[in-house]
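Recap from last week: sequence in, structure out.
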Amino acid sequence: MPSVQPLKIADATRAIRHVFVRDLTLDAHIGVHRHEEDAPQPIRVNIDLTVAEDAAPVGDRLENVVDYEHVINGVRAIVAEGHVRLVETLAEAVAAFALADRRVRAVRVRIEKLQIIPDAASVGVEIERLAAGP
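Predicted structure tokens:
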């Protein structure tokens, strides 16, 4: 069995819901170079969550779902904690935050730095992490 399984998104037969955040743009203190320590720079964050659906109906109640606003606020709080040297470090922190919700079975996080390489629209990293246990 492979150690990393592909992210399974929105699957009715497995009772899986897909919750996502697209193109969240924030200013972050991030980078290994001296000039990156002096000022924030724009980053783009994309998150895909594989969420186990409960047998009970959603009932139009926020507490019965994984709240994407809560996820966004968590990302904002992580970014606000201070300077991070690597996009990988930031991505791992975001993934750990998302997986703290027991309903989240897997998370994919993409962090892009938008203005650091003049000839590139963006550079960054994408990671996928799985929840421990059932």
